[in-house]
Amino acid sequence: MNINFGGGSAGHVRKVHEFVAHPTTVNCVAIGPKTHRLLATGGDDKKVNIWRVGSAASVWSLAGNSTPIEKVCFDPDEQFVVSGSRGGAIKVFDIAEGKVSRSLPGHRSNITSLHYHPFGEFIVSGSVDTNVKIWDVRKKSCIQTYKGHDKDITAVRFSPDGRWVASAAKNGSFKLWDLTSGKL
To answer: Are 104 and 143 contacting, i.e. CB atoms less than 8 angstroms apart?
Structure first.
């Protein structure tokens, strides 16, 4: 099978751009889901950097976290970027203003996965603390905590229709949660 990425000849991939994103380790990266032209990186320097494809300089270097950034994700309209930190804090940054618009404390340990709801103002997070949490961004609060995993959460995702949350953990388990009933 021949794959052609980025307009190069079949079988060859060309680098579009290389960024010097952080002075230390880069722990995560996300690509904007709407335009596919925005990128976010999070690092051990406790910052979230926002980039535009084709530009070597960051658009924003967003501070406000007290521990290294483990995960980042965008909202569907690329108006906000969300960071999850090693200390368990979640920050929602307004991309247009370049500042924290919401702080969502609640996890007791590293954020291992984040995902923004496809339609609403909700975020799902997973953590080393084994909890899956649903956050209402407008109300700045956790509206549901799902317990049931006995090891670190490794991944969380909303379904494309926004009705379900899937979660996976280090013990090999996978759970599907019904958001309308709040149960497995």
So the answer is: no
